[in-house]
Specification:
- By secondary structure, the chain is an alpha/beta fold.
- Among the domains are: 137 residues, NAD(P)-binding Rossmann-like Domain (Rossmann fold), CATH 3.40.50.720; 70 residues, RNA polymerase sigma factor, region 2, helix turn helix motif (Rna Polymerase Sigma Factor, Chain: A).
- Helices cover 45% and strands 15% of the residues.
- It contains 16 helices and 11 strands.
- The strands form 2 sheets. Strands 4-3-2-1-5-6-7 form a 7-stranded parallel beta sheet, with helices on both faces. A 4-stranded mixed beta sheet has the order 9-8-10-11, with helices on one face.
- It binds nicotinamide-adenine-dinucleotide and magnesium ion (MG).
- The site of nicotinamide-adenine-dinucleotide has 27 residues, from helix 1, helix 5 and helix 9.
Amino acid sequence: MKRVVVLGATGSIGRSTLDILRQHPDRYELAGVTGHTQVDRLAEIAREFACPWVAVTGSAPDQDAFPSGTRVLQGPTAATELVQAAEADIVVAAIVGAAGLLPALEAVRSGARVLLANKEALVMSGELFMAEVAKRQVELLPVDSEHNAIFQALPTEAQRLWERPDIAKLGVSGLVLTASGGPFRGRSADDLAEVTPEQACAHPNWSMGRKISVDSATLMNKGLELIEACWLFGVTPSQVSVHVHPQSIVHSAVRYTDGSVVAQLGVPDMRTPIAFGLAWPARVKAGVRPLDLFAAGILEFEPPDSQVFRCLPLAAEAFEAGGVAPAVLNAANEVAVEAFLSKRIGFLTIAHVLEYVLEKLDNSPADSIDSVLQADEWARHTARTWLNSVS
Ligand code: NAD
Ligand code: MG
């Protein structure tokens, strides 16, 4: 029996994870869950799974709502405390945004297997995060569908990410990172000036939280994933080729020196990568509809439009710049996405905010979590000040 903690259990990835646990009560027990606000939902989960630990990070829970066997932690550091208390074998890191960094890092420090959905943690502090993974010899399993696909297509030796394998020595010549292109694929900049948050969140293939949905629409999600891939697999942006693939059937691929391209395919359902991470190296049922290749039809691939979707090249530049630039990019993006979702700014202004904040940055090394968090705070402040001055 494996004890599983789900950080961000009330979100899209959290719900998909609980769905898999529900299908395998003989293999997994829920050791702890966190959520920011949805206290009723957390209480329901605690009752259904007889979950011993719950953390509510954003609002004050009514203890009476929870079953008597559940200990409830509360406050901004409650998710980190829960990781320390719950003694999990597996932690699913599925909090959205920079708020997930410290709990994810604590999960690594606990020595548990970590299923990483919270890509922002790696974008902010990739070097420190991967150093901690290596130091603790932690089984790190990417849950992001593209990175999970790459992981599946890598040789077995290269799946031991905690050993920081040199994948070039194993015959890998490059990575293909696929992107759906989001709801605005093929649009011109003029077309995008007036799009609404509702349109941006209506993703053609995936059902996800609102922040990542906007990131998919701007292609910032692919930018964050490019950085994520660089840290996870020890490559540079020039070794990663982004392919827009509107059908979201090929979830990404690995190129080998002999000309082979090994890809992972499936219907777009996050339960596949989550189940893979939970059971690795075994396989378990995930409740996912089998892929019908006859019905899938034609699979298309095209290059991304980096002129219209500026966030993607900006992310590559931030990674190349190094230091705290990726953390600053991420924080500015969080502020900009929030402003777009609350209709304070237009869709195209998101990229302008990132450009402005990165231009203002006096870069410094990301040599401690404190320096990363300080850069995050500076970027948020700078982005907000600029937004206040223009709106
Ligand atoms: P979501 O918005 O549906 O859920 C986010 C979770 O984080 C919720 O449980 C929420 O309570 C919690 N949360 C929000 N703000 C918080 C804060 N300040 N402190 C602590 N907890 C907080 O998001 P999601 O779509 O499930 O995405 C979660 C993560 O997984 C993101 O990093 C996203 O990029 C990544 N991811 C998601 C998908 C997907 O299909 N949804 C795919 C790949 C990667
Ligand atoms: Mg993804």
